[in-house]
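Please go through the protein record below and see whether the fold suits the sequence. Record follows.
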Amino acid sequence: MKLSPLQIARYKYEPKLPGMLRNGIQEISVKTGEATASVADQEKIRELFPNTYGKPEITFEKGTNTAPARRQVVGVILSGGQAPGGHNVVCGLYDALKATNKDNVLYGFKGGPSGILEDKYVVFDDEFIDQYRNTGGFDIIGSGRTKLETPEQFQVAYDVCKKHGINAIVIIGGDDSNTNAAVLAEYFAAHNTGIQVIGCPKTIDGDLKNEDIECSFGFDTATKTYSELIGNIERDANSAKKYWHFIKVMGRSASHVALECALKTQPNICLVGEEVAARKMSLSDITNYIADSVNARANNGNNFGVAIIPEGIVEFIPEFSVLIREINELLAGKRTEEFNALGSWDEKYEFIRKGISAESMKVFAQLPVGIQQQLFLERDPHGNVQVSLIESEKLFSAMVKEELARRKKAGTYKGKFSAQHHFFGYEGRCAFPSNFDADYCYSLGYNACMLIQYGYTGYLSKVSNLAKPAEQWVAGGMPITKMMNIERRNGEDKPVIRKALVELDGKPFAYFCANREQWAVETCYTYPGAIQYYGPAEVCDIPTITLSLEKE
Protein backbone atom coordinates (compact mmCIF):
# COMPACT_ATOMS: atom_id res chain seq x y z
CA MET A 1 0.00 0.00 0.00
CA LYS A 2 1.38 3.38 -1.03
CA LEU A 3 1.19 5.97 1.77
CA SER A 4 0.84 9.72 1.31
CA PRO A 5 3.77 11.89 2.42
CA LEU A 6 1.59 13.44 5.13
CA GLN A 7 0.60 10.02 6.47
CA ILE A 8 4.25 8.99 6.67
CA ALA A 9 5.15 12.23 8.43
CA ARG A 10 2.30 11.96 10.92
CA TYR A 11 3.41 8.48 11.98
CA LYS A 12 6.61 10.14 13.21
CA TYR A 13 4.93 12.96 15.14
CA GLU A 14 5.57 12.70 18.87
CA PRO A 15 2.55 13.95 20.81
CA LYS A 16 3.17 16.40 23.63
CA LEU A 17 2.21 15.34 27.16
CA PRO A 18 1.34 17.48 30.19
CA GLY A 19 4.43 18.34 32.19
CA MET A 20 3.67 16.04 35.13
CA LEU A 21 3.22 13.05 32.82
CA ARG A 22 6.64 13.65 31.24
CA ASN A 23 8.45 12.97 34.51
CA GLY A 24 8.49 9.24 34.02
CA ILE A 25 6.03 6.71 35.42
CA GLN A 26 7.89 6.31 38.71
CA GLU A 27 7.72 10.06 39.41
CA ILE A 28 3.96 10.53 39.16
CA SER A 29 2.03 10.85 42.41
CA VAL A 30 -1.60 11.58 43.25
CA LYS A 31 -3.13 14.62 44.89
CA THR A 32 -6.63 13.88 46.24
CA GLY A 33 -9.29 16.59 46.14
CA GLU A 34 -12.68 17.01 47.74
CA ALA A 35 -15.50 14.48 47.61
CA THR A 36 -17.86 15.06 44.69
CA ALA A 37 -21.63 15.12 44.20
CA SER A 38 -23.69 14.69 41.04
CA VAL A 39 -24.72 17.79 39.10
CA ALA A 40 -28.36 17.17 40.12
CA ASP A 41 -30.63 14.54 41.70
CA GLN A 42 -27.94 13.72 44.27
CA GLU A 43 -29.95 11.30 46.39
CA LYS A 44 -31.20 9.28 43.41
CA ILE A 45 -27.75 9.08 41.82
CA ARG A 46 -26.18 8.10 45.16
CA GLU A 47 -28.78 5.34 45.54
CA LEU A 48 -28.05 3.99 42.05
CA PHE A 49 -24.25 4.14 42.49
CA PRO A 50 -23.58 3.27 46.15
CA ASN A 51 -20.10 1.88 45.43
CA THR A 52 -18.79 4.58 43.09
CA TYR A 53 -20.63 7.77 44.08
CA GLY A 54 -19.04 10.66 45.97
CA LYS A 55 -15.44 9.77 45.21
CA PRO A 56 -12.90 12.62 45.12
CA GLU A 57 -11.42 14.26 42.08
CA ILE A 58 -7.71 13.58 41.75
CA THR A 59 -4.76 15.32 40.11
CA PHE A 60 -1.44 13.83 39.08
CA GLU A 61 1.68 15.72 40.07
CA LYS A 62 5.41 15.23 40.36
CA GLY A 63 6.35 12.93 43.24
CA THR A 64 6.97 9.31 44.16
CA ASN A 65 4.73 6.77 42.50
CA THR A 66 3.07 4.85 45.33
CA ALA A 67 0.87 2.61 43.18
CA PRO A 68 1.32 -1.11 43.89
CA ALA A 69 3.43 -2.83 41.26
CA ARG A 70 1.45 -5.43 39.37
CA ARG A 71 1.04 -6.67 35.82
CA GLN A 72 -1.85 -4.91 34.06
CA VAL A 73 -4.08 -6.55 31.45
CA VAL A 74 -6.39 -3.89 30.01
CA GLY A 75 -9.17 -3.93 27.43
CA VAL A 76 -10.11 -0.87 25.34
CA ILE A 77 -13.37 -0.13 23.53
CA LEU A 78 -14.19 2.60 20.99
CA SER A 79 -17.88 3.46 21.31
CA GLY A 80 -20.26 5.57 19.23
CA GLY A 81 -19.49 7.75 16.23
CA GLN A 82 -15.97 8.40 15.05
CA ALA A 83 -14.02 11.45 16.23
CA PRO A 84 -10.50 12.54 15.23
CA GLY A 85 -7.89 11.42 17.74
CA GLY A 86 -9.40 8.14 18.91
CA HIS A 87 -6.36 6.24 17.67
CA ASN A 88 -4.09 8.39 19.80
CA VAL A 89 -6.06 7.60 22.95
CA VAL A 90 -5.35 3.93 22.28
CA CYS A 91 -1.69 4.68 21.48
CA GLY A 92 -1.23 6.75 24.64
CA LEU A 93 -2.79 4.00 26.74
CA TYR A 94 -0.58 1.37 25.09
CA ASP A 95 2.63 3.38 25.49
CA ALA A 96 1.95 4.11 29.17
CA LEU A 97 1.21 0.45 29.88
CA LYS A 98 4.46 -0.62 28.23
CA ALA A 99 6.44 2.14 29.96
CA THR A 100 5.13 0.88 33.29
CA ASN A 101 5.88 -2.79 32.61
CA LYS A 102 6.82 -4.32 29.27
CA ASP A 103 4.76 -7.38 30.21
CA ASN A 104 1.52 -5.39 30.43
CA VAL A 105 -1.05 -6.32 27.80
CA LEU A 106 -3.66 -4.28 25.91
CA TYR A 107 -6.68 -5.96 24.29
CA GLY A 108 -8.71 -4.03 21.72
CA PHE A 109 -12.32 -5.20 21.49
CA LYS A 110 -13.57 -5.00 17.91
CA GLY A 111 -16.65 -3.19 16.70
CA GLY A 112 -17.46 -1.26 19.85
CA PRO A 113 -19.08 -2.62 23.03
CA SER A 114 -20.38 -5.64 21.12
CA GLY A 115 -16.74 -6.76 20.84
CA ILE A 116 -16.51 -7.55 24.54
CA LEU A 117 -19.91 -9.29 24.48
CA GLU A 118 -18.87 -11.44 21.52
CA ASP A 119 -15.23 -11.85 22.66
CA LYS A 120 -13.84 -10.42 19.44
CA TYR A 121 -10.51 -8.75 20.00
CA VAL A 122 -6.97 -8.03 18.93
CA VAL A 123 -3.93 -8.01 21.21
CA PHE A 124 -1.85 -4.92 20.42
CA ASP A 125 1.86 -5.00 19.76
CA ASP A 126 4.30 -2.34 18.55
CA GLU A 127 4.06 -3.27 14.89
CA PHE A 128 0.27 -3.13 14.87
CA ILE A 129 -0.16 0.07 16.85
CA ASP A 130 2.52 1.98 14.96
CA GLN A 131 0.30 1.87 11.85
CA TYR A 132 -2.28 4.12 13.53
CA ARG A 133 -0.34 6.79 15.39
CA ASN A 134 -1.69 10.33 14.83
CA THR A 135 -4.17 9.16 12.19
CA GLY A 136 -7.91 9.78 11.92
CA GLY A 137 -10.71 7.27 12.14
CA PHE A 138 -11.56 4.40 14.44
CA ASP A 139 -10.49 1.64 12.07
CA ILE A 140 -7.81 0.42 14.48
CA ILE A 141 -10.52 -1.78 16.06
CA GLY A 142 -13.76 -0.26 14.76
CA SER A 143 -16.60 1.20 16.77
CA GLY A 144 -20.27 0.50 17.44
CA ARG A 145 -23.35 1.75 19.26
CA THR A 146 -24.29 -1.28 21.33
CA LYS A 147 -25.22 -0.15 24.84
CA LEU A 148 -23.83 -1.92 27.89
CA GLU A 149 -26.77 -1.48 30.25
CA THR A 150 -28.24 -4.80 31.42
CA PRO A 151 -27.06 -7.16 34.18
CA GLU A 152 -26.91 -9.96 31.60
CA GLN A 153 -24.51 -7.93 29.46
CA PHE A 154 -22.43 -7.02 32.48
CA GLN A 155 -22.10 -10.70 33.41
CA VAL A 156 -20.96 -11.56 29.88
CA ALA A 157 -18.42 -8.72 30.02
CA TYR A 158 -17.15 -10.02 33.35
CA ASP A 159 -16.85 -13.57 31.99
CA VAL A 160 -14.83 -12.34 29.00
CA CYS A 161 -12.57 -10.26 31.24
CA LYS A 162 -12.04 -13.21 33.59
CA LYS A 163 -11.22 -15.47 30.64
CA HIS A 164 -8.39 -13.16 29.51
CA GLY A 165 -7.26 -12.02 32.94
CA ILE A 166 -8.33 -8.45 32.20
CA ASN A 167 -8.32 -6.20 35.27
CA ALA A 168 -9.48 -2.92 33.67
CA ILE A 169 -11.61 -1.66 30.77
CA VAL A 170 -11.20 1.74 29.10
CA ILE A 171 -14.30 2.97 27.25
CA ILE A 172 -13.74 5.82 24.78
CA GLY A 173 -17.02 7.51 23.95
CA GLY A 174 -19.56 10.28 24.40
CA ASP A 175 -22.12 10.98 27.09
CA ASP A 176 -24.17 7.79 26.59
CA SER A 177 -21.04 5.62 26.35
CA ASN A 178 -19.56 7.09 29.52
CA THR A 179 -22.89 6.70 31.29
CA ASN A 180 -22.65 3.02 30.36
CA ALA A 181 -19.07 3.02 31.66
CA ALA A 182 -20.27 4.34 35.02
CA VAL A 183 -23.02 1.73 35.27
CA LEU A 184 -20.58 -1.05 34.34
CA ALA A 185 -18.08 0.22 36.93
CA GLU A 186 -20.80 0.16 39.59
CA TYR A 187 -21.76 -3.42 38.67
CA PHE A 188 -18.15 -4.61 38.80
CA ALA A 189 -17.61 -2.86 42.15
CA ALA A 190 -20.85 -4.19 43.64
CA HIS A 191 -19.86 -7.75 42.72
CA ASN A 192 -16.25 -7.39 43.95
CA THR A 193 -14.85 -8.39 40.57
CA GLY A 194 -11.68 -6.31 40.94
CA ILE A 195 -12.19 -5.00 37.38
CA GLN A 196 -11.82 -1.23 36.95
CA VAL A 197 -13.61 0.91 34.35
CA ILE A 198 -12.23 4.22 33.05
CA GLY A 199 -13.89 6.54 30.52
CA CYS A 200 -12.47 9.01 28.01
CA PRO A 201 -14.53 12.01 26.74
CA LYS A 202 -15.20 11.83 22.99
CA THR A 203 -17.62 13.67 20.71
CA ILE A 204 -17.19 16.15 17.90
CA ASP A 205 -20.49 17.75 18.94
CA GLY A 206 -18.75 19.35 21.93
CA ASP A 207 -21.63 18.61 24.32
CA LEU A 208 -19.62 16.44 26.73
CA LYS A 209 -18.02 19.13 28.85
CA ASN A 210 -18.40 20.95 32.15
CA GLU A 211 -16.26 22.79 34.67
CA ASP A 212 -13.89 19.79 34.74
CA ILE A 213 -13.97 18.51 31.15
CA GLU A 214 -13.00 21.60 29.16
CA CYS A 215 -13.66 19.96 25.82
CA SER A 216 -14.27 16.54 24.33
CA PHE A 217 -11.71 15.25 21.87
CA GLY A 218 -12.40 15.52 18.16
CA PHE A 219 -14.21 18.88 18.46
CA ASP A 220 -11.06 20.82 17.63
CA THR A 221 -10.25 18.88 14.45
CA ALA A 222 -13.84 18.59 13.23
CA THR A 223 -14.59 22.29 13.59
CA LYS A 224 -11.32 23.22 11.92
CA THR A 225 -12.16 20.86 9.05
CA TYR A 226 -15.69 22.25 8.65
CA SER A 227 -14.41 25.81 8.97
CA GLU A 228 -11.91 25.26 6.17
CA LEU A 229 -14.78 24.12 3.92
CA ILE A 230 -17.04 26.99 5.01
CA GLY A 231 -14.22 29.46 4.39
CA ASN A 232 -13.75 28.00 0.91
CA ILE A 233 -17.47 28.45 0.24
CA GLU A 234 -17.35 32.02 1.56
CA ARG A 235 -14.50 32.76 -0.82
CA ASP A 236 -16.52 31.25 -3.67
CA ALA A 237 -19.62 33.22 -2.68
CA ASN A 238 -17.62 36.44 -2.60
CA SER A 239 -16.13 35.59 -5.97
CA ALA A 240 -19.27 34.55 -7.86
CA LYS A 241 -21.55 36.97 -5.98
CA LYS A 242 -24.75 35.16 -6.97
CA TYR A 243 -25.57 32.45 -4.39
CA TRP A 244 -26.72 32.19 -0.83
CA HIS A 245 -25.15 29.08 0.68
CA PHE A 246 -27.09 27.29 3.42
CA ILE A 247 -24.69 25.03 5.32
CA LYS A 248 -25.82 22.45 7.88
CA VAL A 249 -23.19 21.19 10.31
CA MET A 250 -23.14 18.44 12.94
CA GLY A 251 -24.77 19.03 16.30
CA ARG A 252 -28.02 17.22 17.07
CA SER A 253 -28.43 18.19 20.73
CA ALA A 254 -26.29 21.32 20.98
CA SER A 255 -24.99 24.07 18.68
CA HIS A 256 -21.33 24.13 19.72
CA VAL A 257 -20.06 23.12 16.26
CA ALA A 258 -22.13 25.78 14.48
CA LEU A 259 -21.04 28.48 16.92
CA GLU A 260 -17.34 27.59 16.72
CA CYS A 261 -17.46 27.52 12.91
CA ALA A 262 -19.17 30.92 12.95
CA LEU A 263 -16.48 32.36 15.23
CA LYS A 264 -13.84 31.03 12.83
CA THR A 265 -15.47 32.15 9.56
CA GLN A 266 -17.81 35.09 10.37
CA PRO A 267 -20.74 34.12 8.12
CA ASN A 268 -23.77 36.35 7.57
CA ILE A 269 -26.08 34.08 9.55
CA CYS A 270 -25.54 31.41 12.19
CA LEU A 271 -28.50 29.89 14.00
CA VAL A 272 -27.89 28.79 17.59
CA GLY A 273 -30.51 26.30 18.70
CA GLU A 274 -30.24 27.18 22.38
CA GLU A 275 -31.10 30.81 21.60
CA VAL A 276 -33.98 29.74 19.37
CA ALA A 277 -35.42 27.72 22.26
CA ALA A 278 -34.82 30.45 24.87
CA ARG A 279 -36.51 33.10 22.71
CA LYS A 280 -39.26 30.66 21.64
CA MET A 281 -38.64 31.54 18.01
CA SER A 282 -41.07 30.16 15.45
CA LEU A 283 -40.36 29.01 11.91
CA SER A 284 -41.63 32.39 10.73
CA ASP A 285 -39.35 34.24 13.17
CA ILE A 286 -36.28 32.40 11.88
CA THR A 287 -37.36 32.83 8.27
CA ASN A 288 -37.75 36.58 8.70
CA TYR A 289 -34.45 36.84 10.55
CA ILE A 290 -32.60 35.28 7.61
CA ALA A 291 -34.68 37.15 5.03
CA ASP A 292 -33.83 40.46 6.71
CA SER A 293 -30.13 39.74 6.16
CA VAL A 294 -30.73 38.74 2.53
CA ASN A 295 -32.75 41.93 2.02
CA ALA A 296 -30.21 44.24 3.65
CA ARG A 297 -27.35 42.74 1.69
CA ALA A 298 -29.31 43.00 -1.55
CA ASN A 299 -29.85 46.69 -0.84
CA ASN A 300 -26.05 47.00 -0.79
CA GLY A 301 -25.80 45.17 -4.12
CA ASN A 302 -24.75 41.86 -2.52
CA ASN A 303 -27.07 39.08 -3.67
CA PHE A 304 -24.99 36.42 -1.94
CA GLY A 305 -24.29 35.19 1.55
CA VAL A 306 -23.59 32.27 3.88
CA ALA A 307 -25.81 30.81 6.61
CA ILE A 308 -24.72 28.11 9.10
CA ILE A 309 -27.42 25.87 10.56
CA PRO A 310 -26.89 23.25 13.32
CA GLU A 311 -28.15 19.76 12.51
CA GLY A 312 -30.70 19.62 15.34
CA ILE A 313 -32.15 23.11 14.90
CA VAL A 314 -35.76 21.98 14.35
CA GLU A 315 -35.87 20.30 17.75
CA PHE A 316 -35.11 23.67 19.39
CA ILE A 317 -38.08 25.37 17.70
CA PRO A 318 -40.91 25.01 20.25
CA GLU A 319 -43.75 24.69 17.73
CA PHE A 320 -41.74 22.19 15.67
CA SER A 321 -40.92 20.11 18.75
CA VAL A 322 -44.64 19.89 19.52
CA LEU A 323 -45.30 18.86 15.91
CA ILE A 324 -42.70 16.09 16.10
CA ARG A 325 -44.10 14.86 19.40
CA GLU A 326 -47.62 14.71 17.96
CA ILE A 327 -46.40 12.87 14.86
CA ASN A 328 -44.62 10.33 17.08
CA GLU A 329 -47.87 9.79 18.98
CA LEU A 330 -49.89 9.65 15.77
CA LEU A 331 -47.77 6.81 14.39
CA ALA A 332 -47.42 4.87 17.64
CA GLY A 333 -48.04 1.13 17.55
CA LYS A 334 -49.64 -0.28 14.40
CA ARG A 335 -50.74 3.10 13.05
CA THR A 336 -47.44 3.32 11.14
CA GLU A 337 -48.56 0.34 9.06
CA GLU A 338 -51.94 2.00 8.51
CA PHE A 339 -50.23 5.20 7.35
CA ASN A 340 -47.78 3.40 5.06
CA ALA A 341 -50.61 1.45 3.43
CA LEU A 342 -52.16 4.66 2.10
CA GLY A 343 -51.51 5.04 -1.61
CA SER A 344 -51.09 8.75 -2.30
CA TRP A 345 -49.59 11.69 -0.47
CA ASP A 346 -52.99 13.41 -0.50
CA GLU A 347 -54.45 10.48 1.46
CA LYS A 348 -51.53 10.57 3.89
CA TYR A 349 -51.88 14.34 4.27
CA GLU A 350 -55.54 13.94 5.24
CA PHE A 351 -54.58 11.20 7.73
CA ILE A 352 -52.11 13.63 9.30
CA ARG A 353 -54.60 16.52 9.34
CA LYS A 354 -57.11 14.46 11.29
CA GLY A 355 -54.50 13.11 13.71
CA ILE A 356 -52.70 16.21 15.00
CA SER A 357 -53.82 19.43 16.64
CA ALA A 358 -54.91 22.47 14.64
CA GLU A 359 -51.87 24.40 15.94
CA SER A 360 -49.44 21.74 14.77
CA MET A 361 -51.25 21.45 11.46
CA LYS A 362 -50.62 25.15 10.85
CA VAL A 363 -46.91 24.52 11.36
CA PHE A 364 -46.99 21.43 9.16
CA ALA A 365 -48.78 23.29 6.38
CA GLN A 366 -45.99 25.91 6.27
CA LEU A 367 -43.40 23.31 5.37
CA PRO A 368 -42.35 22.55 1.81
CA VAL A 369 -43.81 19.23 0.64
CA GLY A 370 -40.38 17.60 0.55
CA ILE A 371 -39.78 18.47 4.22
CA GLN A 372 -43.28 17.30 5.16
CA GLN A 373 -42.50 13.91 3.66
CA GLN A 374 -39.10 13.71 5.41
CA LEU A 375 -40.97 13.73 8.73
CA PHE A 376 -42.45 10.38 7.73
CA LEU A 377 -39.33 8.62 6.53
CA GLU A 378 -37.91 5.55 8.31
CA ARG A 379 -38.40 5.80 12.08
CA ASP A 380 -35.66 5.33 14.67
CA PRO A 381 -35.58 2.11 16.79
CA HIS A 382 -38.05 3.71 19.21
CA GLY A 383 -40.53 4.61 16.46
CA ASN A 384 -39.72 8.33 16.52
CA VAL A 385 -39.01 10.87 13.78
CA GLN A 386 -35.35 10.80 12.74
CA VAL A 387 -34.63 14.50 12.99
CA SER A 388 -31.20 14.06 11.39
CA LEU A 389 -32.96 13.13 8.13
CA ILE A 390 -34.71 16.51 7.95
CA GLU A 391 -32.85 18.74 5.48
CA SER A 392 -33.20 21.89 7.54
CA GLU A 393 -30.80 23.76 5.26
CA LYS A 394 -33.31 23.25 2.41
CA LEU A 395 -36.26 23.96 4.69
CA PHE A 396 -35.03 27.44 5.57
CA SER A 397 -33.83 28.36 2.09
CA ALA A 398 -37.26 27.40 0.70
CA MET A 399 -39.11 29.38 3.35
CA VAL A 400 -36.81 32.38 2.86
CA LYS A 401 -37.45 32.20 -0.87
CA GLU A 402 -41.21 32.30 -0.27
CA GLU A 403 -40.85 35.22 2.15
CA LEU A 404 -38.70 37.16 -0.31
CA ALA A 405 -41.31 36.58 -3.03
CA ARG A 406 -43.93 38.14 -0.75
CA ARG A 407 -41.64 41.09 -0.07
CA LYS A 408 -40.92 41.54 -3.76
CA LYS A 409 -44.64 41.58 -4.49
CA ALA A 410 -45.06 44.22 -1.77
CA GLY A 411 -42.19 46.23 -3.26
CA THR A 412 -39.88 45.94 -0.22
CA TYR A 413 -37.31 43.61 -1.79
CA LYS A 414 -35.63 44.14 -5.15
CA GLY A 415 -32.75 41.68 -5.06
CA LYS A 416 -32.11 38.27 -6.53
CA PHE A 417 -32.06 35.07 -4.47
CA SER A 418 -30.58 31.74 -5.50
CA ALA A 419 -29.57 29.09 -2.97
CA GLN A 420 -27.01 26.30 -2.73
CA HIS A 421 -27.13 23.64 0.01
CA HIS A 422 -24.45 21.71 1.90
CA PHE A 423 -24.25 19.32 4.85
CA PHE A 424 -20.88 18.84 6.52
CA GLY A 425 -20.91 15.78 8.76
CA TYR A 426 -18.82 12.77 7.84
CA GLU A 427 -16.20 15.09 6.34
CA GLY A 428 -14.94 15.97 9.82
CA ARG A 429 -15.34 12.77 11.83
CA CYS A 430 -12.20 10.97 10.64
CA ALA A 431 -9.87 13.79 9.60
CA PHE A 432 -6.19 13.66 10.48
CA PRO A 433 -6.28 14.98 14.06
CA SER A 434 -4.93 18.47 14.60
CA ASN A 435 -1.86 18.79 16.78
CA PHE A 436 -4.18 19.81 19.62
CA ASP A 437 -6.29 16.66 19.31
CA ALA A 438 -3.24 14.44 18.69
CA ASP A 439 -1.68 15.75 21.91
CA TYR A 440 -4.90 15.86 23.93
CA CYS A 441 -5.96 12.34 22.96
CA TYR A 442 -2.54 10.82 23.59
CA SER A 443 -2.56 12.51 27.02
CA LEU A 444 -6.06 11.14 27.78
CA GLY A 445 -4.90 7.60 27.01
CA TYR A 446 -1.64 7.94 28.94
CA ASN A 447 -3.56 9.43 31.84
CA ALA A 448 -6.12 6.59 31.76
CA CYS A 449 -3.28 4.14 32.37
CA MET A 450 -2.22 6.11 35.46
CA LEU A 451 -5.80 6.00 36.80
CA ILE A 452 -5.77 2.24 36.34
CA GLN A 453 -2.38 1.88 38.00
CA TYR A 454 -3.60 3.76 41.06
CA GLY A 455 -6.73 1.61 41.30
CA TYR A 456 -9.47 4.07 40.36
CA THR A 457 -12.76 2.96 38.80
CA GLY A 458 -15.81 4.81 37.54
CA TYR A 459 -13.54 7.75 36.67
CA LEU A 460 -13.20 9.83 33.52
CA SER A 461 -9.70 10.57 32.27
CA LYS A 462 -9.34 14.32 32.68
CA VAL A 463 -6.82 16.73 31.13
CA SER A 464 -7.42 20.42 31.80
CA ASN A 465 -5.86 23.90 31.40
CA LEU A 466 -6.13 23.15 27.68
CA ALA A 467 -6.00 26.76 26.46
CA LYS A 468 -2.34 26.83 27.57
CA PRO A 469 0.60 25.03 25.92
CA ALA A 470 0.62 21.26 26.53
CA GLU A 471 3.50 21.56 29.03
CA GLN A 472 1.06 23.40 31.34
CA TRP A 473 -1.84 20.97 30.97
CA VAL A 474 -3.03 19.30 34.17
CA ALA A 475 -3.81 15.57 34.23
CA GLY A 476 -6.07 13.73 36.65
CA GLY A 477 -9.47 12.12 36.97
CA MET A 478 -13.03 12.81 38.03
CA PRO A 479 -15.84 10.43 39.02
CA ILE A 480 -18.27 10.03 36.14
CA THR A 481 -21.18 10.27 38.57
CA LYS A 482 -20.29 13.93 39.14
CA MET A 483 -21.67 14.74 35.67
CA MET A 484 -24.92 12.82 36.08
CA ASN A 485 -28.55 13.68 36.55
CA ILE A 486 -31.85 11.84 36.10
CA GLU A 487 -33.69 12.18 32.79
CA ARG A 488 -36.82 10.61 31.37
CA ARG A 489 -35.85 8.15 28.63
CA ASN A 490 -38.39 5.92 26.89
CA GLY A 491 -40.85 6.22 29.75
CA GLU A 492 -38.29 5.52 32.49
CA ASP A 493 -36.11 7.60 34.80
CA LYS A 494 -32.50 6.98 33.81
CA PRO A 495 -29.17 8.21 35.19
CA VAL A 496 -27.37 9.98 32.34
CA ILE A 497 -24.52 12.42 31.86
CA ARG A 498 -26.03 15.86 31.38
CA LYS A 499 -25.38 17.24 27.90
CA ALA A 500 -23.61 20.59 27.83
CA LEU A 501 -25.53 23.16 25.77
CA VAL A 502 -24.25 26.47 24.43
CA GLU A 503 -24.33 28.88 27.38
CA LEU A 504 -26.18 32.01 26.29
CA ASP A 505 -24.43 33.98 29.04
CA GLY A 506 -21.02 32.54 28.13
CA LYS A 507 -18.16 34.43 26.50
CA PRO A 508 -18.22 32.63 23.10
CA PHE A 509 -21.90 33.41 22.53
CA ALA A 510 -21.45 36.96 23.86
CA TYR A 511 -18.64 37.55 21.34
CA PHE A 512 -20.85 36.20 18.57
CA CYS A 513 -23.75 38.45 19.62
CA ALA A 514 -21.49 41.50 19.69
CA ASN A 515 -20.53 40.97 16.05
CA ARG A 516 -23.39 39.23 14.26
CA GLU A 517 -25.34 42.36 13.29
CA GLN A 518 -22.34 43.61 11.33
CA TRP A 519 -21.67 40.16 9.84
CA ALA A 520 -25.32 39.89 8.75
CA VAL A 521 -25.10 42.95 6.49
CA GLU A 522 -21.43 43.33 5.59
CA THR A 523 -19.06 40.83 4.01
CA CYS A 524 -16.71 40.09 6.92
CA TYR A 525 -15.70 36.55 5.95
CA THR A 526 -12.51 35.02 7.32
CA TYR A 527 -10.77 32.08 5.69
CA PRO A 528 -9.19 29.65 8.18
CA GLY A 529 -7.61 27.43 5.52
CA ALA A 530 -6.46 23.85 6.03
CA ILE A 531 -5.30 22.46 9.37
CA GLN A 532 -1.58 23.10 9.76
CA TYR A 533 0.56 20.36 11.30
CA TYR A 534 4.07 21.80 10.91
CA GLY A 535 5.27 25.31 11.62
CA PRO A 536 4.97 27.93 14.38
CA ALA A 537 3.01 26.87 17.47
CA GLU A 538 0.72 29.90 17.11
CA VAL A 539 -0.42 28.42 13.79
CA CYS A 540 -0.24 24.68 14.46
CA ASP A 541 -1.17 24.22 18.12
CA ILE A 542 -3.95 26.76 18.62
CA PRO A 543 -7.09 25.54 20.40
CA THR A 544 -10.62 26.41 19.34
CA ILE A 545 -11.85 29.98 19.66
CA THR A 546 -14.56 28.68 21.99
CA LEU A 547 -11.99 27.26 24.42
CA SER A 548 -9.79 30.36 24.23
CA LEU A 549 -12.72 32.68 25.01
CA GLU A 550 -13.99 30.47 27.82
CA LYS A 551 -10.58 30.49 29.50
CA GLU A 552 -9.81 34.20 29.12
About this structure: The chain has 23 helices and 15 strands. Residues 103 and 440 are 26 Å apart (CA to CA).
